[in-house]
């Protein structure tokens, strides 16, 4: 009792220290200034460039013929720039939506990965002179006739990439049901499956992923011209100079044009690269979001928290019921049903939840079963946790003395009745602490469903942070929201356990 | 009422019973005595279908149980076992009350769910039985709030609520503190005096001697001898009986405390 009383306040104390630690880390990383970054790169002998090769075609992606080798127009661009600087280039993998914070943290020297030059980003990092003029392309299903441009998107489900300019443009269009993805393969998958009405992404992406797909077509002309720039830490001005010089040389020598032509990306718009007007890309809007007080994000975060609660509660309900069925089949049935239940439990406990979610959402459509994100989330989490609940119930049943079943049988009760009225009520009581514990775990695991286009709390945080680049403050708010929900939950669980314990023995 | 013929039972390869015969007539009171592990508990459990047996037959009030060799008895066997259980009530050494139910619910659970009695009728029956075991005031308590003696008396009332034709008592006082043994035995005695057919496995020699019509001595899975209390306690025919009685009676004869 003394121990458990001690843990509460201690835990809270740690929670208060947490922001301070974060702040220190934050300060320490940004104070590490490169006096002469370009010299440092030469000294080190490699240029480290960050990007996301996952679904990264045609920018940077594994060669289908030899997946150990990365190819893409940006691989060639990085190589060419490094060559001008007199060093080899080395790629560093990082999720696209956190490339900028990773750059600030110092994971690599620069980012070349279709980063659009926007005011929000310009406030955070330096940009090289533009190296590509991009446009955004709307893609729809082959049979779609009603959507010809951004103006037709009101009320439609439109997929885009988290933190991309296309996302901002969709938000400005108004009334669009925006579905935000972390990768570029999945939205086109979902579009082909009918889970989306359109996808709005950068033209190079559409050219590689959508154009070859006979189920999809371009809708309307490209929109929202803007520039890709190479992102460099603010303090590394010398590196920016070196990179700008390199780009200039590649432009004038025609090297850059050769690369783009090789990838089918050259068009007339690229002529503007010679006289960049420095005006930021199409999606200029985030400035307000960047300076807005934190409170402005609360409605979005709270909505995400609501989804988190919904997903957790429904999944747990499913897990509790399905787990009971599995447990009973495993221990009181015979033959194939028993084997099926055992296999289910072992397989679901022995494979990662993330893979189960992917299979449910992106795998099942291959055999003709297309689930909505919400249903897939319920099923994925519920079916996974059911295996764990079944094991908890089993432990509960095994904890009940044999004499209970025997006494019930000796009174003429059938096995089934004895199980339902005598053994299970006691066994479930034994299982309660484990089940409530699992509920809290599931509550946090629910963030995994963001991989199947569910915008719950973690995903909301990712989106807001990627748009505003305010990873620290928003992260603390999101973490606090999780804690504010899970702490009362564990208090309630403890009270429930105490009440049950008081009643039985 | 209960007849056992040629009962064979083994635990895995370890044989316990190699042909046991016993007849119990209606209204008879039979006490099984013998050292721990001699098989008297298992014998009772076979009669109630809680233990499978390999050979022989057990007939309870006209219902026949044949060898129940299989792990999962067939449908006909299950039906027979259930009928037997409705004819005989059983009281366990560990009471086995349902801890998540009140005393009343413990007693009316089977009458309402198995016999389909209305809750009112079952409650009336339960109140009457609790009066008989002198525990009316505990009707709303949970088992954890009762002493061992009280729990065992509730367990007896629970078994009686099914209106059995016979009762099996499996060492009903063996896990009780000494001061509670008396209250349980007097309940059993009252029951016996009303003419309930009773088979009791017990270590209480005085009690066995007083209430039983017949004493059956078990040792190593065999019935060593059977007879009236007079015959067994005064003039045992077998050495094994004598040795067992000497052991337990000497212990019991020691001055208290």
Which structural class matches the secondary elements of chain B? Answer: alpha/beta
What is the gyration radius of chain B calculated from CA atoms?
18 Å
Distance between the termini of chain B: 42 Å
Strand element count of chain A: 12
Which outline of chain A best applies?
Answer: elongated
Strand order of the largest sheet of chain B: 6-7-8-3-9-10
**Mean pLDDT reading of chain A:** 86
SS strand fraction of chain B:
15-25%
CATH C-level of the largest domain in chain A:
Mainly Alpha
Helical content band of chain A = 55-70%
Number of domains of chain A: 4
Detail the poorly predicted runs of chain A: 1-9, 29-34, 280-286
Mean pLDDT of chain B: 91
β-strand amount of chain A? 5-15%
- CATH superfamily of the largest domain in chain A, by name, is MetI-like
Radius of gyration of chain A: 27 Å
Give me the CATH architecture of the largest domain in chain A, please.
Orthogonal Bundle
Helicity of chain B, in percent?
40-55%
Structure description:
The complex is a heterodimer of chains A (505) and B (257). Chain A is an alpha/beta fold. Chain A contains 19 helices and twelve strands. In chain A, the strands form three sheets. In chain A, strands 4-1-5-12-6 form a five-stranded mixed β-sheet. In chain A, strands 9-8-10-7-11 form a five-stranded mixed β-sheet, sandwiched between helices. Chain A has a two-stranded antiparallel sheet with strand order 2-3. In chain A, strand 2 (61-63) and strand 3 form a beta hairpin. In chain A, helix 3 packs antiparallel against helix 10, helix 13 (335-350) packs across helix 15 (373-399) and helix 18 runs antiparallel to helix 19. The longest helix of chain A is centred in the middle third of the chain and has 35 residues, at 298-332. The two termini of chain A are 18 Å apart. Helices cover 40% and strands 24% of the residues of chain B. Chain B is built from nine helices and ten strands. Chain B has helices spanning 40-47, 75-87, 103-113, 119-132, 148-160, 178-193, 205-211, 229-234, 239-253; strands at 2-11, 14-24, 29-33, 55-60, 63-66, 88-91, 166-170, 197-201, 214-219, 222-227. In chain B, helix 3 (103-113) crosses helix 4 (119-132), helix 3 runs parallel beside helix 5 (148-160) and helix 5 packs parallel to helix 6. Chain B is globular and about 55 Å long.
């Amino acid at each position: 009792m003394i121990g458990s009383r001690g843990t509460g306040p201690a835990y809270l104390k740690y929670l208060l220290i947490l922001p301070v630690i974060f702040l220190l880390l934050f300060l320490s990383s940004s104070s590490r200034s490169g006096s002469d970054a370009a010299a440092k790169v030469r000294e080190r002998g490699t240029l480290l460039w960050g990007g996301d090769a996952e679904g990264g075609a045609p920018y940077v992606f594994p060669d289908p013929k030899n997946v150990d080798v990365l190819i893409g127009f940006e691989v060639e661009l990085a190589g060419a720039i490094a060559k001008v600087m007199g060093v080899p280039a080395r790629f560093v993998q990082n999720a696209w939506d956190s490339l900028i914070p990773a750059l600030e943290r110092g994971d690599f020297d620069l980012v070349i990965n279709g980063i659009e030059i926007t005011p929000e980003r310009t406030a955070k990092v330096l940009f090289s002179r533009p190296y590509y003029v991009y446009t955004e392309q709307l893609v729809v299903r082959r049979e779609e006739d009603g959507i010809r441009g951004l103006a037709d998107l009101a009320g439609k489900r439109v997929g885009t990439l988290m933190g991309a300019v296309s996302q901002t443009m969709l938000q400005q269009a108004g009334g669009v049901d925006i579905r935000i993805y972390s990768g570029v393969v999945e939205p086109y998958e979902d579009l082909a499956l009918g889970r989306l009405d359109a996808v709005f992404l950068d033209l190079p992406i559409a050219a590689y992923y959508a154009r070859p797909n006979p189920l999809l077509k371009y809708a309307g002309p490209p929109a929202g011209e803007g520039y890709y720039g190479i992102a460099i830490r603010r303090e590394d001005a010398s590196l920016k100079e070196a990179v700008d010089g390199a780009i200039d040389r590649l432009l004038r020598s025609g090297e850059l044009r050769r690369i783009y032509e090789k990838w089918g990306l050259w068009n007339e718009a690229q002529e503007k690269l010679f006289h960049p007007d420095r005006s930021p890309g199409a999606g200029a809007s985030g400035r307000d979001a960047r300076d807005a007080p934190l409170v402005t994000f609360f409605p979005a975060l709270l909505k995400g928290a609501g989804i988190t609660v919904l997903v957790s509660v429904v999944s747990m309900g499913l897990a509790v019921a399905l787990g009971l069925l599995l447990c009973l089949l495993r221990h009181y049935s015979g033959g194939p049903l028993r084997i099926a239940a055992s296999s289910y439990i072992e397989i679901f406990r022995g494979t990662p939840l993330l893979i189960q979610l992917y299979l449910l959402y992106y795998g099942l459509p291959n055999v003709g079963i297309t689930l909505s994100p919400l249903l897939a989330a319920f099923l994925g989490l519920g079916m996974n946790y059911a295996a764990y609940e079944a094991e908890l119930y089993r432990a509960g049943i095994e904890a009940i003395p044999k004499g209970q079943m025997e006494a019930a049988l000796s009174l003429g009760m059938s096995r089934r009745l004895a199980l339902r009225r005598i053994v299970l009520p006691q066994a479930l009581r034994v299982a309660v602490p484990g089940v409530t514990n699992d509920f809290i775990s599931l509550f946090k695991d629910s963030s995994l469903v963001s991989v199947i286009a569910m915008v719950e709390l973690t995903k909301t945080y990712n989106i807001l942070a990627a748009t505003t680049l305010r990873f620290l403050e928003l992260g603390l708010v999101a973490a606090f929201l999780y804690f504010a929900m899970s702490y009362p939950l564990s208090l309630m669980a403890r009270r429930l356990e105490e009440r049950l314990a008081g009643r039985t023995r | 009422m209960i007849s056992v013929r040629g009962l064979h039972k083994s635990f895995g390869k370890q044989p316990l019973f190699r042909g046991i015969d016993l007849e119990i007539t209606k209204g008879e009171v039979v006490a099984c005595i013998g050292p721990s592990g001699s098989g008297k508990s298992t014998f009772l459990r076979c009669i109630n279908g809680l233990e499978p047996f390999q050979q022989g037959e057990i007939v309870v009030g006209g219902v026949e149980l044949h060898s129940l060799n299989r792990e999962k008895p067939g449908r006909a066997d299950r039906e027979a076992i259930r009928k037997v259980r409705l004819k005989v009530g059983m009281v366990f050494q560990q009471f086995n009350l349902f801890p998540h139910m009140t005393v009343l619910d413990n007693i009316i659970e089977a009458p309402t769910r198995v016999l389909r009695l209305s809750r009112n009728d079952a409650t009336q029956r339960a109140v009457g039985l609790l009066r008989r075991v002198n525990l009316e005031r505990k009707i709303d308590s949970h088992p954890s709030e009762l002493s061992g003696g009280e729990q065992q008396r509730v367990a007896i009332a629970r078994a009686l609520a099914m209106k059995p034709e016979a009762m099996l008592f499996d060492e009903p006082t063996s896990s009780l503190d000494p001061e509670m043994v008396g209250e349980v035995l007097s309940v059993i005695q009252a029951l016996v005096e009303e003419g309930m057919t009773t088979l009791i496995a017990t270590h209480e020699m005085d009690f066995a001697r007083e209430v039983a019509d017949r004493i059956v001595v078990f040792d190593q899975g065999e019935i060593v001898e059977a007879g009236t209390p007079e015959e067994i306690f005064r003039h045992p025919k077998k050495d094994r009986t004598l040795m067992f009685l000497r052991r337990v009676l000497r212990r019991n004869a020691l001055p208290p405390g």
